[in-house]
Design a protein that fits this description.
The complex is a heterodimer of chains A (about 350) and B (about 400). By secondary structure, chain A is α/β, with parallel strands linked by helices. Chain A contains 17 helices and nine strands. Chain A folds into two domains: about 25-125 and about 255-310, D-Maltodextrin-Binding Protein, domain 2 (3-Layer(aba) Sandwich); about 125-255 and about 320-345, D-Maltodextrin-Binding Protein, domain 2 (3-Layer(aba) Sandwich), CATH 3.40.190.10. In chain A, helix 4 crosses helix 17 (about 325-345) and helix 6 crosses helix 8 (about 190-200). By secondary structure, chain B is an all-alpha fold. Chain B has helices at about 5-40, 40-45, 50-55, 65-75, 80-95, 100-110, 120, 130-140, 145-150, 170-200, 205-220, 225-235, 240-245, 260-285, 290-295, 300-330, 335-340, 345-355, 360-390, and strands at about 155, 160-165. In chain B, strands 1-2 form a two-stranded antiparallel ribbon. Chain B is elongated and about 100 Å long. The two termini of chain B are about 50 Å apart. The mean pLDDT of chain B is about 85. Classes of the chains: A alpha/beta (about 350), B mainly alpha (about 400). The interface of A and B includes residues 69, 205 and 332 of A.
């Protein structure tokens, strides 16, 4: 009987260990790569110093299921997370985020209208578009038609793996005007048309998933041009002296937001952190490292002249660019992704 | 209390940690996964009145006013946002467009207290196909939808099983590819691992330590690091291609990355230790006098190998093959980084449904199909090895 008592004792010890709630440091999650390096420098480290408490940062590659699973598991191990617009819309409807305290942020009218939500605060305005190595290409590509033209520009192309963006770009390459893209894509014929256009380029496509990958593909010469996030391109040009170009006409811009996961034990600290990153003078430091547009209107004005021209929010860059249609993608993401995966596997 | 009973209790207590571990970390998750693949309670839970109202609808006549009244009532009653989110996801997964439709309708319903004309809120409510999806979703709390979809089948409007139109889904292709790739990697591991294990078993002292170290050292390195290293080696401007071009063997880089060749190379390297170690452990137990004995009886080395060494070492080869094959089936990182679009294995599809679409039913169903297919192969293996042992 002694042995079973010992086992019982060991089991109860184990149980105590599991249930004991550990005080966890504030954990902030963002997109990694040179973007997160910049955030660490201007947000994470100064905030840790100001609050006097350590701040952990992790990176992720997106995926709504990841956040949903964390919240449904009970107490999430992440607090503040930077999400794409689609994840913001889905999660806010499902109630997996805490509501934002706009008083701490100085009021909704201090931000771009699209950056204000019940569950999220805009963090950056970013663009996806064609990027190329200016040192290797004598003539720069100017449009999606050029991206598809393998005779004029021989070599492989990088595209983000997924239906989102690839279908829009294919339609623009097929001659659809940027403003008409989502109207065409909403019809079954439009979807067929996009896939048919992708067929033509398929043998020349290298698919990437994480935002740091296209930079690597472009640097190594594995691809001659690729879709990429505009901020990372200008960031790399500045830190490594590259001459990568980014084509704004035909690019698609969207807003990424900070959210706080439901029932986070560091809810208040996370809110303070988001408020810290949204202060005009803190946010205005970002474009020096990475060329993303700023949702805080005051911060946008504080950005030095020389960095203004590279931002997706600059008036010249907005010409011919379109905004990502969140409603279209929350409705059609699953069906189109399934079809896209089937198309990839053929 | 008899002595026997006490003894039994003591032995039970001794294995209790193992049993608990198996139940908590193996049986329970497996059961949950299987359950999520077939259970479909969301719509019935969230729409109780509609469940009743839709149960005797023939699914072809136009929707009745009772149906829409019941549906409006249900929408008004849902206060749990997470339940509502699950409902939306369930319906939108069956028919794209439901997400905006239901969210819009819910807002309109909550704004008024009385009855409401759904077709005035959105004209899609006049479309039968949306009501059919709700009727199917509320008809039962268990479903074979996910399991069928996992092997590219679906139920058509009359309820018969039908194949999903070509181009809409590729689960079957990817499942077959997963098994072919795992087989190719296993074959490559045998071809490289067997001679390697033979050499390692035939030498002694520091040479053996060196050879075994060469196998074990990579095993202690992270899988991600090894895959990333292969990425650097295999790329067009990588070490392998620049050496080939320097030696003048090729003028253009051989394409080794983003295709099947690269994935098989990298996976073979990663899984090689699991083949070498079992074969080695069997080979060191075989008396070294056997091969010279065969030679003294006049056998050619090849014949001696085939008739003496190979049958004795086969046990190691088979357990090594099983280890490699089973691990290769679940590979995710290596095909994702080294492979092209046509080299993705089933785990990447499972990962999409779990982490991307939050569709746990589909993720569970695909996992279940993979598990059943693997078990079937294992049974075949058991039958084959049993037959072999019966032979004298």
């Amino acid at each position: 009987m002694k042995i079973s008592k010992a086992v019982l004792f060991a089991c109860s010890l184990l149980a105590i260990n599991v249930t004991a709630v550990e005080a966890r440091d504030l954990t902030v999650v963002s997109w990694g790569g040179n973007y997160q390096d910049a955030q660490r420098k201007i947000y994470f480290e100064p905030f840790a110093k100001e609050s006097g408490k350590p701040l952990l940062d992790e990176s992720w590659d997106g995926g709504y299921g990841v956040l949903q699973a964390k919240v449904k598991a009970g107490v999430p191990n992440w607090d503040a997370v930077q999400v794409e617009a689609e994840e913001l819309a889905l999660g806010c409807a499902d109630g997996i985020y805490e509501k934002i305290d706009w008083n701490k942020l100085g009021g909704k009218d201090k931000f771009l209208p699209d950056a204000v939500g019940d569950c999220g605060v805009g963090a950056i305005v970013w663009s996806t578009g064609i990027s190329y190595d200016g040192d290797k290409l004598k003539q720069a590509p100017a449009s999606w038609a050029d991206f598809w033209d393998t005779e004029k520009f021989p070599g492989k192309r990088g595209l983000r793996k997924g239906a989102k963006y690839a279908l829009e770009f294919a339609l623009m390459a097929d001659g659809v005007a940027p403003k008409e893209v989502y109207t065409v894509l909403a019809t079954p014929e439009g979807v067929d048309r996009a896939f048919k256009k992708l067929d033509a380029l398929k043998p020349n496509i290298v698919w990437w998933e994480a935002g740091a990958q296209p930079l690597q593909l472009l640097s190594s010469g594995e691809v001659v041009m690729t879709t990429a996030y505009n901020g990372r391109i200008s960031g790399l040009n500045r830190t490594e002296g590259k001459h990568f170009g980014f084509v704004f006409p035909g690019s698609i811009y969207a807003i990424d937001s900070w959210v706080i996961l439901k029932d986070s034990p560091n809810k208040d600290a996370a809110m303070d952190f988001i408020a810290f990153t949204s202060k005009p003078d803190n946010q205005a430091k970002l474009p020096e490292f990475i060329a993303y547009g700023l949702p805080n209107i005051e911060a946008g004005k504080l950005v030095p002249e020389k960095f203004q021209a590279e931002l997706p929010t600059a008036p010249d860059n907005l010409k011919g660019a379109i905004s990502l249609d969140i409603d279209f993608w929350t409705d059609n993401s699953e069906a189109l992704t399934q079809r896209f995966n089937a198309w990839l596997a053929q | 209390m008899s002595v026997l009973f006490r003894k039994q209790m003591v032995s039970l207590a001794l294995v209790a940690p193992l049993l608990l571990f198996l139940i908590v970390f193996f049986a329970f998750p497996l059961f949950t996964m299987m359950k999520s693949a077939v259970s479909d309670p969301v719509a019935t839970q969230a729409l109780p009145a509609s469940t009743n109202a839709l149960s005797d609808w023939d699914r072809s006549s136009s929707p009745t006013s009772e149906m829409s009244a019941a549906f409006v009532e249900d929408l008004r009653q849902i206060n749990d946002d997470q339940l509502f989110g699950d409902l939306v996801r369930r319906l939108n997964s069956a028919k794209a467009g439901f997400r905006t439709l239901i969210t819009k309708t819910r807002t309109a319903v909550k704004a008024t207290a009385g009855p409401i004309d759904l077709t005035a809120v959105d004209k899609r409510w006049a479309d039968n196909s949306y009501w059919q999806v709700i009727a199917i979703a509320t008809s039962s709390t268990i479903t074979d939808r996910n399991l069928l979809a996992a092997v590219d089948l679906e139920r058509n409007s009359s309820g018969a099983i039908d194949t999903i139109p070509a181009g809409a889904s590729a689960n079957r292709t990817i499942l077959i590819r997963t098994f072919t790739m795992a087989l190719a990697v296993t074959a490559a591991c045998i071809l490289i691992g067997f001679p390697f294990a033979m050499i390692a078993a035939s030498v002694e002292g520091w040479r053996r330590q060196l050879l075994l170290g060469a196998v074990l050292l990579p095993l202690w390195t992270s899988l991600l690091v090894r895959t990333a290293a292969w990425f650097i080696l295999l790329q067009d401007t990588g070490l392998i291609n620049s050496t080939l071009m320097f030696l003048g063997l090729t003028t253009e880089p051989v394409s080794l990355i983003f295709n099947r060749v690269g994935v098989v190379i990298a996976m073979t390297h990663v899984l090689l230790p699991f083949m070498v170690l079992p074969i080695f452990s069997v080979l060191v137990g075989i008396p070294k006098t056997l091969m010279p004995a065969a030679a003294s009886l006049g056998a050619h080395p090849v014949r001696a190998f085939l008739a003496v060494l190979l049958p004795l070492a086969l046990r190691g080869v088979i357990s090594g093959s099983l280890l490699v094959f089973m691990s290769a089936l679940g590979y995710y990182i290596t095909p994702a980084l080294i492979g092209g679009a046509k080299d993705q294995m089933i785990s990447s599809v499972i990962a999409y449904y779990a982490t991307g679409a939050a569709n746990w039913g589909m993720a569970g169903a695909l996992g279940l199909v993979l598990l059943v297919a693997t078990l079937l192969l294992y049974v075949v293996y058991l039958r084959l090895s049993a037959e072999r042992e019966l032979k004298p």
